[in-house]
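Hey team,

Filing this mostly as a record. A colleague (T.K.) asked me to run one chain through the structure pipeline before their review meeting, and I want the input and output archived in the tracker in case anyone asks later how it was produced. No errors, nothing strange. Just documentation.

Input sequence:
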Amino acid sequence: MKSLSFLAILSLLAITLSLTKASDPSPLQDFCVGVDTPAYGVFVNGKFCKDPKLVTVDDFFISGINKPRTPNPKTGSIVTPVNVNQIPGLNTLGISIVRIDYAINGQNPPHTHPRASEILYVAYGTLLVGFVTSNTDNRLFTKVLYEGDVFVFPEGLIHFQANVGKY
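Output structure:
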């Protein structure tokens, strides 16, 4: 009797599992424009959500990222972030970008992004880029990039960039 019950449950489970579908869940809302005031009530991803009726197109916009900045003398680079603090509409979207300006021989020191991959685009100049795998090999991947090149750093891996060009 026990084996018959077990067989019936196993059969029911097999039939049910074949009907299941796996996918990423759809967001509950189109966006959550991040604000620092609790007046809106819903707290998501470190920010409160702005009332969707009060959202404007400017919550999804920034200008001036094309303007170069003077690199820090210690590292020879300066990072201009574009994240939820600059574009509130990025909240909960899992996206941010940066502009990095390099001095000659400047670098963006080794660092990680524990919950994100990074895509790097070289607008001008020559960069040496690399990352180290986390498996037992600790393999180093490096490449010299030129204007127009794109490189991807996998999520959570330590990586770096260094200006090896003449400007």
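Quick notes for T.K.: The longest strand covers residues 77-82. The mean pLDDT is 86.
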